[in-house]
């Protein structure tokens, strides 16, 4: 009886540790793999000042807006709050899902869209306003 109980406890601990490692891998991979690319595209959140600068540049403008490498969606959401139909493209699926949640939470999910996509494989020609914050190699 004691050996069976110990065996069950060991199996439970092994399963717990294994599950935690799989979850850690699933969460960390999208943040680590950009560093392994030829051009490193890290996630750096836009500051409040950068968002205000973008909004200032958008004054007296209309049409659709795209944020290339939208990260956690801060610029897309801010533009949607100003009445723009705003779209964000981001390679990291966790950031896209978080962006969609934030847009829903802030009540602008009707005016926003977020796509998981490699920015090098998308045409941005049909957008009137394009926002890019990136490393110099990307720009």
Automatic annotation (TrEMBL):
Example of a GO cellular component annotation carried by this entry: mitochondrion
Originating organism: Cettia cetti
Segments passing through the bilayer: 9-28
Keyword rRNA-binding in record: no
Keywords: Membrane, Methyltransferase, S-adenosyl-L-methionine, Transferase, Transmembrane, Transmembrane helix
Gene designation per UniProt: Fam173b
Family: Belongs to the ANT/ATPSC lysine N-methyltransferase family.
Protein name: F173B methyltransferase
SUPFAM superfamilies (UniProt xref): S-adenosyl-L-methionine-dependent methyltransferases
Lineage top rank: taxon: Eukaryota
GO BP, sorted A to Z: methylation; regulation of mitochondrial ATP synthesis coupled proton transport
A molecular-function term among this protein's GO annotations: protein-lysine N-methyltransferase activity
């Amino acid at each position: 009886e004691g050996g069976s109980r110990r065996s069950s406890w060991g199996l439970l601990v092994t399963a717990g540790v294994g599950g935690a490692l799989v979850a850690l891998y699933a969460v960390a991979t999208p943040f680590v793999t950009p560093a392994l690319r030829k051009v490193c595209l890290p996630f750096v959140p836009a500051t409040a000042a950068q968002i205000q600068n973008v909004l200032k540049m958008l004054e007296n403008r209309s049409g659709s807006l795209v944020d290339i490498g939208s990260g956690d969606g801060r610029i897309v959401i801010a533009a949607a709050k100003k009445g723009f139909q705003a779209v964000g493209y981001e390679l990291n699926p966790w950031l896209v899902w978080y962006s969609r949640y934030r847009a829903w939470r802030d009540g602008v999910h009707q005016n926003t869209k977020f796509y998981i996509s490699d920015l090098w494989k998308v045409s941005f020609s049909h957008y009137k306003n394009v926002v890019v914050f990136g490393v110099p190699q990307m720009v």
